[in-house]
Specification:
heterodimer, A: Alpha-Beta Plaits, B: mainly alpha, about 75% helix, about 0% strand, elongated
Chain lengths: ~290, ~50
């Protein structure tokens, strides 16, 4: 029982829920179907959180990146890229594990019982490279080069892929706003299909969107090996029991690659380690 | 030693990120973000 309590993920989920509520607390937006227009919207939030969500208080960093890259007069996005570098260098993919509302949704969906959960499959690790392709093509190259007559590029990742935008912005706004409802077409249907597939896959596979699609996770993953908040392994204490590898839902081997690019810092490996060999920060807490 | 080096690299990149943010703000990028974030992004919600 004690072990079950120790391994519980709910303390992390509580922080995820609290952060999601805090950053989407513009209740008037949900009532009136309008967006928050205050000054906080100048600032990016660290996780994937659509700024067209009626409750959103901040801007989505991936949306902000595409908006500036796609703007006719800028193209290079120092503000959003600098923000991502700053957060990434401090926390790496800690953001994915603790501060992303869409990550929370996938965490919760994966708790729904299903006869056979898919932990990994052939080509799993290769497929995880797809998120870097999506980052390069849909977030950077297409908004930069596929532009209209005035040189304005669309946010192609948001437009063609992002299920977070559909869930957080598309669904509530279309429900609340009659004029938007009358404007929906094939693109909306396509994005609903992507959202539905993501939800269904999240029941089967742990965080499929984070593993294979998310360009924000791709960016933060680049900083995981050098981020200030990081995991350490005390090699003298490690007994190579493999408990950390078995508990890791991202299918990495924390004892050997504690700061792997796929690690979302959920902390389950730290909790399960019988000798306290895995720790975070500068001091060994064991 | 290697861990210390990684820590310094991490801090340096964080500082560089802050400088980039400041430069981006100084040339007006924040207003692009603000305009996009305060108006319904039709592309984001699957309409535009």
């Amino acid at each position: 029982m004690d072990k079950k309590k120790k391994m519980s993920e709910w303390p992390r989920h509580r922080i995820q829920v609290l952060w999601a509520l805090l950053t989407n607390s513009y209740v008037t937006g949900f009532v009136q179907g309008k967006l928050y227009k205050g000054k906080l919207k100048n600032l990016c939030v660290p996780g994937l959180n659509c700024y067209s969500c009626p409750g959103a208080l901040g801007a989505c960093p991936i949306g902000a990146l595409q908006a500036v890259i796609g703007s006719w007069n800028f193209k290079l996005a120092f503000y959003a890229a600098g923000f991502l570098m700053f957060i990434g260098a401090l926390m790496g993919r800690f953001v994915c594990g603790w501060l992303c509302p869409f990550g929370l949704l996938q965490d919760l969906l994966h708790k729904i019982p299903f006869p056979k959960k898919l932990e990994t499959f052939r080509g799993d690790m290769l497929l995880r490279k797809l998120k870097y392709v999506i980052l390069a093509v849909f977030v950077i190259l297409l908004p930069m080069f596929l532009v209209d007559i005035v040189g304005q590029g669309a946010p192609y990742f948001c437009k063609l892929i992002c299920p977070a935008g559909t869930l957080e912005g598309g669904l509530p706004l279309v429900i609340l706003n009659l004029s938007l409802r009358s404007a929906i077409g094939w693109l909306y249907a396509w994005k609903i299909v992507i959202l539905a597939v993501t939800i269904l896959l999240s029941i089967l596979i742990y965080r499929p969107f984070c593993k294979y699609i998310c360009p924000l996770g791709a960016i933060y993953s680049l900083f995981n090996p050098i981020s200030v908040f990081r995991y350490h392994v005390d090699r003298d204490r490690c007994i190579s029991c493999g408990a950390c590898s078995r508990v890791c839902k991202m299918q990495i081997e924390p004892a050997f690659h504690a700061n792997h690019m796929e690690c979302i810092r959920c902390g389950q490996c730290k909790k399960v380690c019988p000798t306290g060999a895995i720790y975070s920060g500068e001091m060994n807490s064991a | 030693m290697e861990e210390k080096l990684r820590l310094y690299i991490g801090i340096s990149i964080a500082v560089l990120g802050m400088c980039m943010m400041a430069y981006g703000i100084s040339r007006g990028e924040m207003s692009v973000v603000m305009i996009k974030a305060t108006n319904i992004c039709l592309e984001c919600i699957g309409i535009g």
